[in-house]
User: Which sequence fits this backbone?
């Protein structure tokens, strides 16, 4: 059932990039707009929902290397039902 909800919602896998907020603009300015199309920003984390994560990861890593941007962590994970809820409603379950 959960996989069906994920498929219907259009939410893809999540790439999470932990980066100092002072570097957000620099980092985002070099990324392909297709990568940042479905992105949320919270404090030091950029969360990107994307259906084909491998090319997006390659793009992100290329930007980090080429422009010497310090990233604390990069994660690729499957969207959870809570991620989908937030994507659809714009708020978390606790709000």
Assistant:
């Amino acid at each position: 059932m959960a996989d069906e909800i994920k498929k219907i919602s259009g939410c893809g896998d999540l790439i999470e990039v932990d980066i100092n907020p002072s570097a957000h603009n620099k980092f985002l300015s070099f990324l392909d707009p297709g990568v940042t199309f479905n992105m949320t920003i919270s404090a030091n984390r950029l969360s990107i929902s994307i259906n084909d994560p491998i090319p997006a990861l390659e793009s992100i890593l290329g930007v980090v290397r080429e422009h010497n941007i310090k990233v604390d962590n990069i994660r690729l994970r499957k969207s959870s039902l809570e991620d989908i809820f937030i994507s659809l409603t714009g708020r978390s379950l606790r709000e």
